[in-house]
Amino acid sequence: MATELELKLMVQPEHQTKVCLFLDEFCSDGAENQHFRRPTLSLMNAYYDTPEATLLNAGIALRIRAVDGRFIQTVKTRGSSRVGMHERGEWEWDVPTDSLDLSLLKEVPLPEELKDLSWSKDIVEVFRTDFERQIWDIQYNGTEIEVACDNGDVTSPYGRDQISEVELELKTGNGEDLYSFALVLCDKLPLQVNLVSKAQKGARLKNRKIEFPDTPSANSTNLEFAVYWYETWITYWEAMFYLQDEILIQPVRNSMLQLKKCLSDELHNELDELDRSLSDAMNADNDNVLEALAKVEHTGKVMLHIGLWLNQQIQF
């Protein structure tokens, strides 16, 4: 079992090439053996669940991945909370074919109600994620980071969604350096923080629901409200592009307004400046408002600055 800590960034498809070129250049400028690019992979993944979404509701993703002539069965579980990040338990096994071996699940600490595997008689393939992955191994401040740029599709009988994202996964070292290197990327590229996993993308093709963070109680701390409004902001931002609905810029900006009330003056000012930039993009004479919003340069940087600060407050 491994614990995966990952920071995910969304990128509009038209900027994917820029991201790859920047990472290639970053690697070529580094010391020998400090950074390198791996061969591009084509990943074909089938995700399994019951029609009632038994695994999804338990925070579990089960898949078979086909890559380079191998079949890999993977289970991911919902991990502990990291603001704006994905932290999950992960189990992987090589299997001989593209068929599930459910006996391997005995190695996973499943919830009590799932341990007898009675639910498995109803298991079916519920969606697929098929994408091309370009990978760079980066040494940054002594931390080893795997950077993956993924481009492809999530498909199911209920529709399709696009995969266009950059993932920064901590291999060894300090989790704060994921933010530090992400800021290097966002300083040059139009990227934003993304909370939606590929498994969540597949599930929402059927349920048509945008997953929002749990609303804090009235007696929650200022920090808990800050985390809530931060993740609500990021959720609305991603939903705006997923649904291709520019009207969602209104709850995006409202979430930013609420978040400002919970932050230091410095971060408060960053949000003010970003809000003005978003307003300018909305009011400019643009045929494509969403495209203009995606190009606002410092959106991702402000998201990362605040996400890093929040994680530091809860002892990263």
UniProtKB/TrEMBL annotation:
Q: Which domain of life is it from?
A: Bacteria
Q: Which InterPro entries match?
A: CYTH-like_dom_sf, CYTH_domain, YgiF
Kindly list the GO molecular function terms attached to this UniProt entry: inorganic triphosphate phosphatase activity; metal ion binding
Which parts of the sequence belong to the CYTH domain? 2-209
Q: Which PROSITE patterns match?
A: CYTH (PS51707)
SUPFAM superfamilies this protein is in?
CYTH-like phosphatases (SSF55154)
Q: What is this protein called?
A: CYTH domain-containing protein
- Native source organism of the sequence: Marinomonas balearica
